[in-house]
Amino acid sequence: MSWMVWTLPTAIFFATIATLLAGMTAWEVVSPSVERKGFLPIATTRGDRLFIGLLSAAYLHLVVVGFTPLSIWLALGVSVLWMLVLMRWG
Amino acid sequence: MNNKVRNNKAWWLILPMLLLVAFSAIIPLMTVVNYSVQDVFDAQTRYFTGTEWFVQMLNDPTLQSALGRQFAFSLTILAIEVPLGIGIALLMPKKGWQASAILILVTLPLLIPWNVVGSIWQIFTRGDIGLMGWSLRELGYSYNITRSPLDAWITIVIMDVWHWTPLIALLCYSGLRAIPEAYYQAARIDRASRWAIFRYIQLPKLTNVLVIGILLRFMHSFMIYAEPFVLTGGGPGSSTTFLSQALAIMATAQFDVGPSAAFSLIYFLIILLVSWVFYTAIMNMQKDKKDGGA
User: Fold this and answer.
1) Inter-chain residue contact B35 with A42, CB threshold 8 Å
2) Domain that holds residue A8
3) Same domain, yes or no, for A46 and A87?
4) In 3-state terms, what secondary structure has residue B5?
């Protein structure tokens, strides 16, 4: 695996994503998702909301890191909050 | 309907495909993510740089202008290829030997490899021996793709339209063939005009294939590399250097793997977002139509 030049932060990142995906699968098996409409303009399933959350989190991180002097941890915090809001009311 | 117990065992059948994709796409992508946060000299010598490469890439004026050009190019060719493709599909004969002959003729450009297309057009547009270049010169227009950015741009757009409009045309042709004759009969009874038939029967039935066509064409054109590279080499200056070429120069010529990895990820996120927006928008349009009972 040394050719993949792992670092601790990226390992944690991918472990989190993998855990999320596994968790979502388990959740789906236990109680299948029903498509519904929240504050987003489109009807979404849980998986859709997770995808939207992750993608917008990625863009938020890029904007914060690239164009503002703010800390990346702020972006992470806001992203986690945003993800929770999105999953619950999105 | 939702109370039914669903059997999900068939999902296991995608496991081989998943493994294949893991090796061809997911693991390399993960490696790129790892590269993007480090300054890698060789397998032993590497330093963690955090977000430095991302900051550098996002603020790089060369890449920003390449990104702008890329969007301009993709939108231009979509705006030309989609209506043109639909038009060609509508004009293609429906049956008989003519249908087969036209199908083959239309498909031909699709069979030519990218860099060969570039070479063909490179020769075609040369001022001394190229048919198009020479003719335009004789007509009094000082056509020169190595000196005029506008000429280079127009030529690349025409080249892409020539190469890829057939894809849209073929997709639309198959979509049109799938419309049952009964729809047309009903339209004839209503004495619907040719335009009304197109607008209310053919176009809605083409939505699915157009989604695929637009997505494919957008992604293809957003990643275009070999054709402009062979035709203009990204010039004159950097007027036709698109994203992947800017990236390739950085990754292979300058061997800055860290910054290139960071830039690849930004590139990937843009494609992911645009594709998702396209897909969701068009799928929702269809859903609304079904719910509305139209």
Assistant:
1) no
2) 1-32
3) yes
4) coil
Segment A28-80, tens digit of pLDDT? 888 888 888 888 888 888 889 999 999 999 999 999 998 888 888 999 999 99
CA distance B197 to B254: 56
Q: Which amino acid makes up residue B227?
A: E
Asked if A51 and B276 come within 8 Å (Cβ–Cβ), the reply is yes
Q: How far is A68 from chain B (nearest CA, A)?
A: 10
* Complex confidence, ipTM: 0.90
In this structure, are A23 and A40 located in the same domain?
no
Q: Which residue of A has its CA nearest to B11?
A: A25
- Distances from the Cα of A86 to the Cαs of A24, A27, B45, B127, in angstroms? 15, 17, 42, 59
Q: Tell me, yes or no, whether A44 and A28 share the same domain.
A: no
Cα first-last separation, chain A? 39
**Who's near A17: CB < 8 A, 6+ residues apart?**
A54
The CATH architecture to which B51-267 belongs is Orthogonal Bundle (1.10)
pLDDT in tens, B117-138: 989 998 898 888 888 888 888 8
Which residue type does B216 have? L
Helix%, strand%, coil% for chain A, nearest 5: 75, 0, 25
Residues A19 and A41 in one domain: no
